[in-house]
Specification:
Blueprint lengths: L2 E4 L2 E4 H31 L1 E6 L4 E6 L4 E6 L9 H31 L9
Helix pairs in contact: 1-2
Amino acid sequence: MTRCKIINKTFNSEDIFMDMSKMLKDLQKMQSKMLKAQNDLKAQSFDAEAGGGMVKVAMNGKGVLTMVKINPDAVDKDDVEALEDLIMAAVNAAVKKKDDAQQASISDITGGMKIPGLM
């Protein structure tokens, strides 16, 4: 058994190995949970609308638009900019819903601890 003394505290090499082993197992569990969370997120759909439902969009968990619906009453050839703004607002709302779901999933797994580079 190897012993080392650091700042008046004695550690057994076996104890350190056991702690490292447990930490690696915990990291593997977290990685598995993250993969499941990513797959679950990809399967979800995030719907949003703008202009009181004049423009509706749906986005999957990968961030790909899967649906855009525009009410014909929203189309005014003399005010295309208003329609563009509605589309942008609806898409941004869907992105925010997706991002919020992603952050909630990460927070659940990490216990709220911020780990750079996750998802």
